[in-house]
Amino acid sequence: MLAVQQISEAQDGLITAAQCRRLGITADHVKWLVRSRVWTAVSRGVYLVDADLRGSSLPLRVLVRAGQLACGPHAVVVRHSAALLHGIHGLRQDERAVHLSLPGDRAVPKRLGDGRLVPHQLVIDEADLVEREGMRVTSALRTVADLLLCTDRYAAVSVLDSALHQGLFADFDLPDVYRLIAGRRGVVAARDWIGQSDGRAESPLETRARLRCADAGVAPDELQSVIRGADGAVLGRADMLWRRARVIGEADGEQVHGRPEAVFRDRHRQNDLANAGFTVLRFTWSDTLVPDRIPTVVRRALAGAQRSITVAG
User: What is the pTM of this model?
Assistant: First the structure.
């Protein structure tokens, strides 16, 4: 079974019926392995070999691989699933959905273990395809272009920011995004969203907080600005900065800032900034879900700073 192990290790713990036949493993033996719960059938003709993954909900990446294997070499991983493989953040992933573009009559829904295949029929040039560990996937640029047309504005800009921040493509590539969405449904809104992107944002939380502020007329002056004390020493870096008012907006991701060592580090940093005359506002994901919450807090801080300037004057 060494050959089975080698193949499955390269395919996220999966093997196909066709690959079994080439190895001389009969269909009856495969059925016996499934009945004996040594293997698990994920989809028709696709089996989970990795024992560590059995008995639990399969990771979305494994479901994507299963879908691609089940649908054959013409299947292309697209949209949300392509974003997953590229490491692009900002989407509300349906953890059980696998998005594949399939030709003709093959574009039909099917079960994938505890997930489901969402079929598409997209016209994709070979130049817009890349390979990721044996899977055909739309390029990062094409993936983002497709997502701009099927998501809301906040998700769309978050996806753009994420791809730009990670260097998957650059600002000078954005004209190609315009080209890829031209003439397609949703293009009018998507064109406007492209201009709202900023690759300096380090997370979807930062993107969404920035958009909330911009929508309410209190857009920050700078992003990822280095803050220095009177002696020139670096006090920190601000996710968002309103420079004249000396107001800083920080996006607090629970995964990072919730760790004990991060709490202490943030406390010392915030004290240093406060002593230098800066007001630090901290925002979480839940704050972005209420349209006026972040802008209201920012306005109050800006108004307070203006009163201080007036009194001092």
Answer: 0.88
What is the total count of domains within the chain?
3
The CA distance from 52 to 49, in Å, is 9
- Mean pLDDT, rounded, for 210-215: 98
The pair phi, psi for residue 174, each rounded to 5°, is -60, -35
- Residue (of 139, 141, 150) closest to 190 by Cα position: 150
251 close to 212: Cβ distance less than 8 angstroms: no
For residue 160, being part of any structural domain is answered with yes
Three-state DSSP at 21 gives helix
Give the strand pairing for 247-251 and 40-43. unpaired
Do 208 and 182 reside in the same domain of the chain? no
Q: For 282-304, what is each residue's pLDDT tens digit?
A: 999 999 999 999 999 999 999 98
Question: What 3-state class would DSSP assign to 129?
Answer: strand
Encoded tokens for 71: 């649908």
212 and 278 within one domain: yes
